[in-house]
Amino acid sequence: MRIGLLIAPAVGRIARRYHVPCLVEKGDARPGARYALSVGTQPPEIPQVLADFGFPALGAIAERAASGLIHHTYLVRLADGLRLVLQRMHPIFSPEVLLDIDAITAHLDRHGMLTPRPLLTPKGALGVPGAEGAVWRVLTYLDGITHDRMPDPAHAAEAGRLVAAFHRAVATLPHEFRFVRAGVHDTAAHLARLRDVSSTACDDS
Known about the structure:
alpha+beta
């Protein structure tokens, strides 16, 4: 689970704007992609996700966020002005990861760290199914800027301080994770691989 997902505001430069209800052209969900409007229909994705979470799609505006490395992220402004973040989760994550994110963000909130929080459907679910087996979630919106890459050392230093605060806060979290990606956070294995690559590069030089 990417720490940035929890501690960075889910915003960035915005690609094309479109009004919901709408249909995304099949197979083209890249930032900046064109969207086919289909007013009056009931498409299976964004308007249905809003409805599943108890939000009205009528009059809502959705924007595909140009920033983001894993999930498909959409910024939504409802007719009453409420802003939300909708994400079509990457299939490498099972729905159980939402339980972990909910527990972590609730713990961070109790320790004074502001993070996007996952919302519940009226039925108490943290996610809803979409097309082709996808899982959608809805998060609270935080104003700010997301950086996919560090623009300069000053930003890296601030990010380091934020990660340190994150680790201090979750150090007291009594939680058994429901979803774990094998090997992703195996620091010793990653360091060993870097040493092997470095050694091979030196031998070839």
